[in-house]
Here is the input.
Amino acid sequence: MPNQNGSVYGLTILSPIIDDDKATPSHDLQIRRYLAALHTDERSPFALWQESHPNSLQDSRPGTHLARLVVMDDVIYVGMPACEEHLNSKYLIFEANLDCGLNGDLDAYLRGLAKTSAEHLDAIWSHCVGYPGAGNVNAFVSYMKACQIETTFFFAAVNDRTVSETLRALQTQKAVAEFITDHQGMEPVRLQAEFVAFAARVNAAPTPRAGAMEAAMVARREIKTGGRNE
Amino acid sequence: MSKLNETDIQGFALRGYNLPYARYVFLHFEDAEKARVLIGRLLGSITTGQRWDGGKPQSTVNIAFTYGGLVALELPDATLFSFPPEFQQGMRDRAAILGDTGLNAPEHWDEVWEGAPVHAWLGIQAQTPEALDACYGELFALMGETGGAIVLAAQDAASERIAGKVTAREHFGFTDGFGNPDYLGVERSSQPGQGKLMPDGSWAPLATGELLLGYADEAGELPVAPVPHILASNGTFMVYRKLHQNLATFRAYLDAQAPLYGGGVEKLKAKFIGRWSDGTPLELSPDAMDASIVADPKRSTNFTYGADADGTRCPIGAHMRRVHPRDAFGFNGKLIDRRRITRRGLPYGPFAVEGEPVTDDQDRGVIFMALNANISRQFEFVQQQWIEYGNDAHQGNDKDMLMGNHGGRGKFVVQGDRSAGNPPFVCGNLPNFVELRGGDYFFLPSITALAMIAMKLVDPR
Here is the structure.
């Protein structure tokens, strides 16, 4: 299963963009305009995430670790000694790392997308050839799978954990670090009592919402990415 | 690789002069023609990289320009636009990239960085205060005579003297100035640990192009540089940052944490940066200072972190290990060879011995200057990723203990073992021990380039 690594799925979808010289702006530009206005954090329509319960660590409901949408116009000729080549169409590329469970259940993810973000999906993919709309979920899933190509190799630095598990782990890590900082040097009996109470609190705490861990960061990163990253 | 033409390279790029007194003067050009005359008259006074066979001079002079300065000097547009974007923008406009926010934001910088823009940096270093004043006096007179520049501000800095001896101590009590990189072709007394790590464990000089423009860098490419080539070649970029040190906060924090830490106050302090206060590397001597190591150039910078992956000797987030990770990121250190910078600088402000009452308001700190071929790839990367973030070092969001812009909420983990004298420890609620008080990005041209600027000969065609 080259698309799958443990319970993480590497999805690649290439949808040909409608070529219509009467459309102004062109369909590819309309997609670009729509994508440019989308949130890139947990508010993104592609950031699937569902509340899970503390004890359901095997949660395999769909979650998005990372998603990227790109409009690919053509292959860029970079000069000699490269040879000049061209694509037959402009493409919308949709890549995502997502939770699919051990059975590699892509359908559940695509259905989840159709359910939560139909309006956005239609606004984007209606510029693509043969798109049936997200209203007809079966047709939507079939369409996306027809456009899917094998990912073969992808980077997913999530240690085979679901989005919920990862959020929970971050929450626990932060809480433990704070506990240690606040309890260093405490005499053992009291420390143990405090730790037992602490562990119970952590275990009972709900899984944080997607994006909540960044907001709760000890020191929130305000840094922008630099220009060239050689 | 042939020997560098040291007489064409400003000495400041090639050598730490080890002169104890400095004055960094910030100039503004009002008239391009007069400014060019001034630079022409200064040419003979600029200290080059030529070796001092006849002993150290009484004083040295070097000069560098901001992008605004080069505009004011009327360099051709095609040349100006060929400078890298971060240099064109200047450090103030890069604040969000550098993490210069909050207490470090430009609104808290010294007055000189507002208003009339700084066009040039004139760096004077001297053996004595008298020599410094004399040199500055001559230069000041020349500026008056030519009308070439007005002085916006002057920043004095000086090494600490203890019992008459010049030291490399900074205000927090650490010993500074170890481990500047070696570069191919730069003659200096090099020592193991200062260049790049080779697969066989030896150390070799970095490619010249990591420091100087016009030479191949570690990727075998020429660094991004302005046109024409002759303007860029043998020059480098300099980052100037005035780093205020909150000495009272530092001492109070250390005093509050030390009783909680089982290893004692001196060891805790050493864990912050990775060296004991005398400079002994924790990696080589984790339990005590060892003056014999500090004094031995074959040992003082000669170590790696491979055998200390857990950080029980030198913490993984210690300042020194962050900014020069050696082999700590694996791949025989290959990931860091394009992230090295050469550092210059001196402390400023009054020194205070331990126990002497101090306040944060007192004007003291360190003038930090970094030289590199590519500000974006080298200095800015180190500042953004290794000082203000901890992911590469597997320290999550933790920032550099000493330099980080913590805002009172920082954390630093001291890894330890089961022994009583080396327990694990977490320093929480870190305040800003260091605050940025201003600075900018400068171009430090070659002697040839300076002459071409003075004679209005820069031609990008």
The first helix of chain B runs from residue 11 to 14. The CA atoms of residues 245 and 434 of chain B lie 5 Å apart.
